Amino acid sequence: MILENSSDLVHDLQSCAASRHADRLSLLRTHVDTHLGEPLDLASLCAISGLSKIQLISLFKTGTGQTPHQFVLSRRFAAAERMLLDARLPLAEIAYALGFSSQSHFTSSFRRSYGVSPGQLRRRLRSEVPFDWQAGTRA
Which of 73, 81, 93, 82 has the alpha carbon at shortest distance from 118? Predict the structure, then answer.
């Protein structure tokens, strides 16, 4: 009987911990999405979540499959894709709005991730030629 209760207690504690982790990850996702133009380094994310650097990295790897830095970049690039549809927005403005230190830094990071520059993607989006994201080529 004691062992059964002990097992239940362990299960309850694990469920509670998983729920806390999900809540923290949800808070961090919301924070990142609403603060894309601000510095989003490990220290600031740790302060928001109340986690150590190691705990934060573990939470992101488990919950998203990405490191915190990779997650922030992926959210910034997702926002950049939407912003690139507006041809009136200069690339430099998009870069600064998304927290990059310069258009050059934005362009090189974007190209490393997508295989094309933001300007090339903008032209493709405007010409409505389907783009195969996996292959990095036109479909």
Answer: 81
